[in-house]
Please model this.
Amino acid sequence: GAVVSQHPSWVICKSGTSVKIECRSLDFQATTMFWYRQFPKQSLMLMATSNEGSKATYEQGVEKDKFLINHASLTLSTLTVTSAHPEDSSFYICSRKLAGFTDTQYFGPGTRLTVL
Amino acid sequence: DQQVKQNSPSLSVQEGRISILNCDYTNSMFDYFLWYKKYPAEGPTFLISISSIKDKNEDGRFTVFLNKSAKHLSLHIVPSQPGDSAVYFCAASQGGSQGNLIFGKGTKLSVKP
Model:
């Protein structure tokens, strides 16, 4: 069964508004979760690493003030796209690592964001 | 510069035959490789992985081969089934990191009945 859930699965918003996406680890407490973005016909690009109880680590080129990440509990990480613009329209996917020390990650179902 | 490359954007195979999906990488520090399957509007589903200390890993119909000298890996699906039709992503990670995965652009596999 699913080990990572995301909510909402899709969202349409007006330009300038903020959108929050939730990512939950269902079966395991995750101190670290990951946020990816996928544009059409492109690969998944890591945006940031979400760390429970501390600041997220952002990849180069990802605006920290634009994509706010909060990892307030061991099972929940949120990504807020602030002042969304049409170019932020994308498929956002979160993941967590498999228990243990492997690098295998399990992904959520993704959230399709469309900014009008 | 892409560190993980999937040069074939698409592949079409007849049901029952073998599907071979290829992936090349440039970073010799990668030591763990994964294949994910993805349907439209869904998150990737983990399929199979291989550590750099191995050259083959098999799980049911899926086998991953790793050629470190060539910096090449491949996913073999045999026999292919129509339900295997999806986009397959190759991913790699470097030990000692936080586990960041670097993905290829994916190969769309179509298995025809």
